[in-house]
Amino acid sequence: MALLKFILVVYLIYISLKFVFVRVVPMLLVRKIQKLQEEAINRQQNAQQAYRQGATQSQGYQKPQQKGNVTITVDPQKHSSNAQFDDGEYIDYEEIK
User: Fold this and answer.
1) Rounded to whole angstroms, how far apart are CA atoms 72 and 56?
2) Residues 6 or more apart from 65 whose CB is under 8 A from it?
3) For the residues of 45-88, what is the DSSP string, one character each?
4) Does residue 78 contact residue 72 with C-beta atoms inside 8 Å?
5) Strand ranges, E, within the chain
6) pTM, to two decimals
7) Contact 71/65 with Cβ under 8 angstroms?
8) Residues 44, 2: Cα–Cα separation, whole Å
9) What's the start-to-end Cα distance of the chain, in Å?
10) 37, 43 in Cβ contact below 8 A?
11) Collapsed DSSP state (helix, strand, coil) of residue 56
């Protein structure tokens, strides 16, 4: 009779652990993954905001642009109109057939 009780208890423990691992653990993992994704998104947004604030502070205030517009700013001290352009070094090559 004791052996039958032992087998019944072990079977009930097995069934309960199987239920927990099949039903509860995946739900907990999904919640943890969603929480980690939200934290990563928040960190990325905070980093973008900090970068934008640093960029606007270093360059002075610029008016917001419409989406899709491109603005190219050129530093006049670096680029002068009488600058000499170097074509670079000529490298001879052989055509491989």
Assistant:
1) 15
2) 71
3) HHHHHHHHHHHHHHH---PPPPTT-------TTT--TTPPPP--
4) no
5) none
6) 0.43
7) yes
8) 61
9) 88
10) no
11) helix
